[in-house]
Amino acid sequence: MDELLIVTTGGTIDKIYFDDKSDFQVGDPQIGRMLEELGVAFRFRVIPIIRKDSLHITDDDRELIRATIAAQPAKHVLLTHGTDSMVETAKVLSSISDKTIILTGALSPARFRGSDAEFNIGTAVGAVQSKPPGVYVAMNGRIWDPLKVRKNVEANRFEPLG
């Protein structure tokens, strides 16, 4: 892997808590800081393109994500994305055939103690280097085919369809 392209779209992984509003808002992308603190042994570049909860990502946003990734020379792409509509975005990205694209996110904000963010990012970094070209979802310690996975909202985890 020459360089890992990281595209960020917001989602829970980048959420911050505002005490005065008792609300979460999407903040700055956390992944670059996290990878620097971990001292990773590969080059990476971060392109933050939107800051939205994935429930608010539109078809136009998905096309922007697809076009941005397709236009970059990098063959290895990690996309941070909110978990609620991650699978829908993965399906749109399946038209890009010459890159390995891994979507990941978090079920609790990266800034929170006990967040699954670092674990999911680590899983995604391993997957992007070892999987053949295609689109995959890295969540809950597994690499999923986006056509065969769903988010179980009640259980707050990803699981196979059917």
TrEMBL record:
<feature type="domain" description="L-asparaginase N-terminal">
    <location>
        <begin position="4"/>
        <end position="152"/>
    </location>
</feature>
<protein>
    <submittedName>
        <fullName>Asparaginase domain-containing protein</fullName>
        <ecNumber>3.5.1.1</ecNumber>
    </submittedName>
</protein>
<dbReference type="Pfam" id="PF00710">
    <property type="entry name" value="Asparaginase"/>
</dbReference>
<keyword id="KW-0378">Hydrolase</keyword>
<dbReference type="InterPro" id="IPR006034">
    <property type="entry name" value="Asparaginase/glutaminase-like"/>
</dbReference>
<dbReference type="InterPro" id="IPR036152">
    <property type="entry name" value="Asp/glu_Ase-like_sf"/>
</dbReference>
<dbReference type="InterPro" id="IPR027474">
    <property type="entry name" value="L-asparaginase_N"/>
</dbReference>
<dbReference type="InterPro" id="IPR037152">
    <property type="entry name" value="L-asparaginase_N_sf"/>
</dbReference>
<dbReference type="GO" id="GO:0004067">
    <property type="term" value="F:asparaginase activity"/>
</dbReference>
